[in-house]
Amino acid sequence: MKQLPFGKPMIDDSEMNAVLDVLKGPILVHGPRVKEFEKRFAAFAGAPFAASVSSCTAALHLVYFDMGLGAGDEVIVPAQTHNATAHAVEYTGATPIFVDAEMETGNIDIDQIEAAITERTRAISVVHYLGMPVDMDRVNAIAQKHDLLVVEDCALAIGSYYKNKHMGLHGDAGCFSFYPVKHMTTAEGGMLITKRQGLYDRIVKKRAFGVTKNHGERKIPGIYDVEELGYNYRMSEVHSAIGIEQVKKLGSFLKAREANYKALHQCLQGIGEVDLFQAFKPDYQSSFYCLSVILNEKIASDRYAIVQALNAKGIGTSIYYPQPVPCFSYYKEKYGYPENGRFPVAEIISNRSIAFPVGPHLTTEDMQYIGKELKNVLVKVK
To answer: Whole-angstrom Cα distance, residue 247 to residue 154?
Structure first.
């Protein structure tokens, strides 16, 4: 029987040797590999500025922290996302205002954004759900009208483009994740990219305690000042060494994902029990993070049985995401959201979806196997 995990870090001797080189040397933080990794990632994305951080969540938090968000401020946030998108707003004391998803892509429903804006709104957060870009022209038009910043959560969007510009460069800042099952990994870590040098300069300082001089800039070791509040959100030399090697392979990783996605998408065409997200549109290039299907209403209650049957055949699956963020206990209890019905599209996606792997650890033949076994399972639950 095949074993097809949902995600698997693509690590080989190049990453291992790079880490060993770091460990054999005297510098584990504040070293040259961080700068090289940032330079390479910026070049890949076409970004003027890139700042490495300890996680995508840290990048999001630093943007809102730099804005000076606090109690009484609001940020528009998609209901259909990882909770970190909203947590980053919560960390500042500001309030996330959730907007439902659109059924076509799972992205934020742009038609509902403006109605959610109040005099307290400071920013719009968008998430490129499963790697499919949001229509940033429409989002930016709303933001400009109301004088709001735009923060792109690009955790699943490495290799996503809108009108030939990489995601993260359409708004004020783009925040990326290098968690192990993402498009590339640093074991753990993140990156912020931006077109704004001022924002970049401030983030670089705020990610490292707010000190005035990093180690390489100090004429006398140990002498520096602290001019503002900052966090310990740096990336280490070890993580950066992995990232350098991963960026070198990123093009091949993305090509494999796209090929696998298209193969599986073709296999699933015409299956009446499931719906597929729109992943192919002019001017939009998905990063093809995974392929998620939406079960129809008649078999939605059988989702767990379907997942268990697929897992028994060696097919790894996941769910993106188990609930809309405002339906998680923390947000529901804090803000009084009802059990269901407030975010109907996000609830359908959360309650009926099954995500399948398309990563570079798999082949197009594996996609054929997944498609065949899904069809077999669906026959049994009809």
So the answer is: 16
